[in-house]
Write a structure and sequence with these properties.
Helix 1 runs parallel beside helix 12. The model has no long low-confidence stretch (mean pLDDT 95). This protein is elongated. The chain folds into 3 domains: 230 residues, Phosphoenolpyruvate-binding domains (TIM Barrel); 81 residues, Beta Barrel (M1 Pyruvate Kinase, Domain 3), CATH 2.40.33; 124 residues, Pyruvate kinase, C-terminal domain (Pyruvate Kinase, Chain: A, domain 1, 3-Layer(aba) Sandwich). With 472 residues, it is an alpha/beta fold. The strands form 4 sheets. Strands 1-2-3-12-13-14-15-16 form an 8-stranded parallel barrel, surrounded by 6 helices. The chain is built from 17 helices and 21 strands.
C-alpha cells in the first residue's frame, strides 16, 4: 500500500460508495481515510461503514483513518403553504418571524428565536447557499423584515447563513452529542466539529473526548477565520470547509484564506485538509474540468496534508475514477520541478526543544546522505507530526505499538504508518526498523536509513536520538 505520494486523500462515504466492494476499490485507487458525514445516513449505516472499513484494513494490513464529521447547528427556515416554493424578487420585502404558520411570498417561520434576537438592522441573511440574499431593514419583537437584494426561489427548510454574525449557540447540538456517543463507541479516529466560531466551541468537544480521538475544527465561518490564532492551537487538525466559507465570505477571499490556513497549520505542526468541490464535476462526468484539476494541484503545491472528496465519492456517478484522478494529479505535482522548492521555501523554524531539534536534524541528514527513508519510532505520534512538519522528500515510516496512533496519523503529510513492537534496546531498534523498511519496499542494499527514537524506549515524548543505518 505504498502510495508514492506525500499528500493524502480523504473520501466521503455515501450511497455511491457505501458498498464493501466499492470501498475496496476506493482504497486501491488511493483513499487513505474515510469521512462519515453525520448530516446524512442512519446510525446503522455508519456502523456498517465502520465495520467494512475495519475489515478492509485487516485484509490489507494497513491502517485506515476514519473521520466522523458532526452536522453542527444548521439553521433552516420553516415551511411554506402547500409546500409550494416561493419566488422572491430583488427589491421585495420578506420577513422572518416566530409565527409557526406556513409561509408565503412575504414571510416565513424562523424556528430559531435566538437568531431573531441577535440579528440587527444592516445584517445580511443568505438562504439556499447564498443564492437568495436579504438584508435586515427592520427589527421588532419576534421578527426581522428584510430587503431582497438578490432574488430567487426559496422552499421548505432551506439553509440559512448569517455572514459575520456571532451566533448565540453552541457548535454542538443535541443530535451531535448523540452522534458523538456512537462515534466513540465505534472507535473513530477523528471528530470534525462543524460551524466553529470561537475557542469555546473546541473546548466543549475536547472536554467530552479528551485524547480518545483527534479533534478537528472545520473553518467555514468568518468568526473562525478571525480567531484562527486562538483556534488552531486547541485542535489536532483543521479542515478548510470551502463550501460554507465561500457562502459566508466573498468568494474571492477563499483562496488567500486557504493559503493562510495551510501556512499556519504547518507552522504549528497540525494536519490541514482542503475540502469541498475539488472535483465537483466528476459527480456527473468521468473527468474533471481543467479548473478543478488546477484546484487540486494548487492545494498540493501549497502543502496541504490532505485533499478531500465530498459528493464526488459519496453520491457521484464516478467515485473510484474521482479518487484515481486526484491520486494522479497529486503524484504529478510532487514530481514537478516547482514542488520541492515550494516545500522548502515555507520551511518552519524548529521549536527550541529536543524533539523538534532531532526531527529537524533528521531531515537535514536524510537530505545530505540521500536516505531512502526516515524511520521514526513513536508512541503518542508527536514525533511523527514533527517529522511531517519538516516536509522531507523521503517517505517517513512511522512505527508505533499503538494501532489507534497509527490510524490517526494516516492524515499526516508523508507519513507511512505501521504498527510495530516497541524496541527495548538499540540493536532491537535497528533490527525492527530494517525489517519494516524492507517489508514496505522502501529501500534495498546499500541505501541509508535515518532513524529517530527516544531513550529510554517506550516513554512518550522522549525523542532524543538520531542514527543512520546502511542496509546490508
Amino acid at each position: 500500500m505504498l502510495r508514492n505520494r506525500h499528500a493524502k486523500i480523504l473520501a466521503t462515504l455515501g450511497p455511491a460508495s457505501a458498498d464493501y466492494e466499492v470501498m475496496k476499490k476506493l482504497v486501491a485507487a488511493g483513499v487513505d481515510a474515510f469521512r462519515l458525514n453525520f448530516s446524512h445516513g442512519s446510525h446503522d449505516d455508519h456502523r456498517r461503514n465502520v465495520a467494512n472499513i475495519r475489515k478492509i484494513e485487516a485484509e490489507l494490513g494497513t491502517p485506515i483513518a476514519i473521520l466522523q464529521d458532526l452536522q453542527g447547528p444548521k439553521i433552516r427556515i420553516g415551511t411554506f403553504a402547500d409546500d409550494k416554493p416561493q419566488m422572491l424578487k430583488s427589491g421585495d420585502r420578506f420577513t422572518l418571524d416566530s409565527d409557526k404558520t406556513p409561509g408565503d411570498h412575504k414571510r416565513v417561520y424562523m424556528p430559531h428565536p435566538e437568531i431573531l434576537k441577535v440579528l440587527q438592522v444592516g445584517d445580511p441573511v443568505y438562504i439556499n447557499d447564498g443564492l437568495v440574499r436579504l438584508k435586515v431593514v427592520k427589527k421588532g419583537d419576534g421578527f426581522v423584515t428584510c430587503d431582497v437584494t438578490a432574488g430567487g426561489a426559496v422552499s421548505n427548510r432551506k439553509g440559512v447563513n448569517l455572514p459575520g454574525v456571532d451566533l448565540p449557540m453552541s457548535a454542538m447540538t443535541p443530535k451531535d452529542h448523540e452522534d458523538l456517543k456512537l462515534g466513540l463507541e465505534l472507535n473513530v479516529d477523528w471528530v470534525a466539529l462543524s460551524f466553529v466560531q470561537r475557542p469555546e466551541d473546541v473546548h466543549e468537544l475536547r472536554g467530552i473526548v479528551g485524547n480518545k480521538v483527534g479533534v478537528m475544527a472545520k473553518i467555514e465561518m468568518p468568526n473562525a477565520v478571525a480567531r484562527l490564532d486562538q483556534i488552531i492551537p486547541l485542535c489536532d487538525a483543521i479542515m478548510i470547509a470551502r463550501g460554507d466559507l465561500g457562502v459566508e465570505m466573498p468568494i474571492e477571499e477563499v483562496p488567500p484564506i486557504q493559503k493562510k490556513i495551510i501556512r499556519k497549520c504547518r507552522e504549528q505542526g497540525k494536519p490541514v485538509i482542503a475540502a469541498t468541490q475539488m472535483l465537483e464535476s466528476m459527480t456527473q462526468n468521468p473527468s474533471p474540468t481543467r479548473a478543478e484539476a488546477s484546484d487540486v494541484a494548487n492545494a498540493a503545491y501549497e502543502g496541504a496534508d490532505v485533499l478531500m472528496l465530498s459528493a464526488e465519492s459519496a453520491s457521484g456517478k464516478y467515485p473510484v475514477e474521482a479518487v484515481a484522478m486526484m491520486d494522479s494529479i497529486i503524484k504529478r505535482v510532487e514530481n514537478s520541478s516547482a514542488w520541492r522548492p515550494l516545500m522548502d521555501a515555507r520551511h518552519p523554524e524548529p521549536e527550541p526543544e529536543i524533539g523538534d531539534s532531532i526531527t529537524s536534524a533528521a531531515h537535514m541528514v536524510a537530505e545530505s546522505v540521500d536516505a531512502c527513508c526516515i524511520v521514526t519510532f513513536t508512541s503518542s505520534g508527536s514525533t511523527a507530526v514533527r517529522m511531517s512538519r519538516q516536509r522531507p522528500i523521503q517517505p517517513v515510516l512511522m512505527l508505533t505499538p499503538n494501532l489507534n496512533t497509527a490510524r490517526r496519523l494516516v492524515l499526516g503529510w508523508g507519513l507511512h504508518c505501521r504498527v510495530a513492537q516497541d524496541p527495548t534496546n538499540l540493536d532491537e531498534m535497528v533490527s525492527i526498523a530494517v525489517e519494516c523498511v524492507r517489508a514496505e519496499g522502501l529501500g534495498d542494499h546499500g541505501r541509508h536509513v535515518v532513524l529517530t527514537a527516544g531513550v529510554p524506549f517506550g516513554v512518550p515524548g522522549s525523542t532524543n536520538m538520531l542514527r543512520v543505518v546502511t542496509l546490508a
